Model the fold of this input.
Amino acid sequence: MWKAKIVVTYKPGILDPEAKTIQHALGNLGYRHIQEVEAGRYFEVQFDKTLNKEDAESLTKEICDKILSNPVIQKYRYELKEVD
Amino acid sequence: MKFGVVVFPGSNCDHDTYHVLKKVLGAGVFYIWHKETSLRLFDAIILPGGFSYGDYLRVGAVARFSPVMKEIVKYAKEGGPVLGICNGFQILLETGLLPGALIANDGLRFLCQDVYLKVKNSDTVFTNAYEKDRVLKMPIAHYSGNYFANDEILKRLHDEDRIAFQYCNADGDESDQINPNGSKHGIAGIFNENKNVLGMMPHPERAAEKILASEDGLGIFKSLLERN
Done:
């Protein structure tokens, strides 16, 4: 069975106030070597056993484009893992 | 004239909107449950504010897939007037009936305050009761009201007169410091290409009676009511 591990983040150039706030907080805590923080959403999607790797990949892309990300402001990446 | 106010799980301005239409304006108005699939009855549809589906995933992202939304897209494409207020605006953007997106406010705070906005286009079914450049006072109440669109879309919105409202101060000054949430070009509301769909972050239904300290929002509902 295949499982998709999906990360959705903001596109470059879109201000992510949450990431900026975290970066600022890290600065306040005294961490001096942090150049950039990116925040995002993480999803794990478990497919049933009828899907082979190719099907799982095309379904992953479909749900990312359709609902898990908003292409106006976000991008996504994923990896597929074989699980028992 | 029959208005329909859509009710999603988590809508919370549906009753306020219904109240204004029915009690303040004496119009015909009905609730539309989000599972409804026929909108033939209605002369205008309103998507109210609230937290549809708990704002899970992204604001408006789950409501977009409610059965009623497919019909609303059809209704809007056929020219039916659709007004989205606050969460309703967020849903219209996720649905693609309006361009761009709403992201978290610049200051990462939920903003609940009165703002001033300027009527940028008074020649539409939603704004014909106002004069152009009139300054309106009404409240905002949102966390994700920071309007974003790329430069190409922003240029089109300007060129095609599709900016409905822009944040300003009581004197009508629209400079950047007045912008409460970081929205591009201080945008508070936009129209679609045919100007039969309006999305706006401020709440006209909360500024539609004397007792609420402002009646400036009433013009939007009056415009719709008197358009024929």
Observations:
- Residues 209 and 215 of chain B are 5 Å apart (CA to CA).
- The interface with chain A takes residues 57-58, 61, 65, 93-94, 99-101, 103-108, 148-149, 182 of chain B (CB under 8 Å).
